[in-house]
Amino acid sequence: MSRTSDPVTIEVVSPGLDRARIRYAVTLPTFRRPDHLLLTLDSLARQRFADPFAVIVMENDAEGRAGLEAARPLFASGQMTGLVIIAHERGNCSAYNAGWTTALAEFPALEAIAVIDDDELAVPEWLERIVATADRYAAELVGAPQVPIFEGGGRDVYRNHPVFVPHYAETGPVPVLFSSGNVLIRRRVLEVMPRPFLDPGFNFIGGGDSDFYSRCRAAGFRFAWCAEAPVHETTPARRTEFTWLQARGLRNGALSSIIERRRDASPKGRLKTIAKSGALLAASPLRSLALGWRTRSAVIGLYHIHVAVGRFLGEFGLVNEQYRRPEQN
Q: pLDDT by residue (tens digit) across 179-237?
């Protein structure tokens, strides 16, 4: 089955899908990871969740379509409930936007969407727990941990690197979220926030999720964290190499300054951002020394310096497009 609403094509619909009964949808972007996509789908098939939910797989490789072909039999046979679509515009923000827009259009009774990536595995209670946390704290957006599973072994030392450590440790209300890899978003957020939800300008540098959350906070939406709803993220060995960690730190710093400038583009706001960048750059050697001492790792310790230098570069619009070459990410 093929139905198109540019730039989205609905390729597969599970037989007998009762759209009116679906209150929750799990959106799952995929790009050239068909084998792991099947593992992610298997973890979703094992969810212990009382309400009917649908899965939307967003294939973001419109030419290769490996994820689409891997998922097609599961949805066509009814083993998985939901849709497989093609998000024709390349980039992670565009893939998320395609899935979220499709969920709103296809499921009139939708209450919330959950997001998981194609390199992640959900625990069986994942969806149940993250929904319960949203209900308990009356939160419109709920995040949860992405726990790294390092490929190749011997890399657990990097579990304490800031790029792999969850932003929060305990369940409860939090001021804001940062990652879209494990999150629940209430329908009313998507009804209020302007489209496209995630700015495609962040497609290849990342940070579209942080920018979205920043705008959601400005709109008055509430955030919470669910420590009991982790996903386990398969982490390639290259992500523990110094060059990747350095690039990620520089990118994170640049994105922070870019998002702050967007939040307040006035001359006063610009001066405030520059002053903050200067202060972080001045403090970064001591912060890095403390982090390196605490973790017993010079590589980890350098993170604060990388972020500070990245913020300085970001003031001049220099940011690494780390997602432009997915094979190196």
A: 889 999 999 999 999 999 999 999 988 899 999 999 999 999 999 999 999 999 999 98
- Long-range CB pairs of 103-109 (<8 Å, 24+ gap) are 103/25, 103/27, 103/54, 103/56, 104/187, 104/190, 104/191, 105/5, 106/19, 106/22, 106/54, 106/56, 107/19, 107/22, 107/23, 107/25, 107/54, 108/19, 108/20, 109/20, 109/21, 109/22, 109/23
User: How far is the C-alpha of 27 from the C-alpha of 94, rounded, in Å?
Assistant: 13
Do the beta carbons of residue 9 and residue 2 sit within 8 Å? yes
Whether residue 85 has pLDDT greater than 60: yes
Radius of gyration, CA atoms only, the chain: 20
DSSP state of 194: P
Distance CA 251, CA 255 (A): 6
Q: What amino acid occupies position 78? A: G
Whole-number percent of the chain with pLDDT over 70: 95
Helix, coil or strand: residue 57:
strand
Q: d(Cα 54, Cα 225) in Å, to the nearest integer?
A: 23
pTM, whole model, 2 decimals?
0.92
Q: Does domain 3-238 fall into CATH 3.30.43.10?
A: no
DSSP string computed for 228-285: T--EEEEE-GGGGSHHHHHHHHHHHHHHHHHHHHHH--SHHHHHHHHHHHHHHHHHHH
Q: Do residues 131 and 236 make contact, with C-beta atoms less than 8 angstroms apart?
A: no
The ranges of the chain annotated as CATH 3.90.550.10 are 3-238
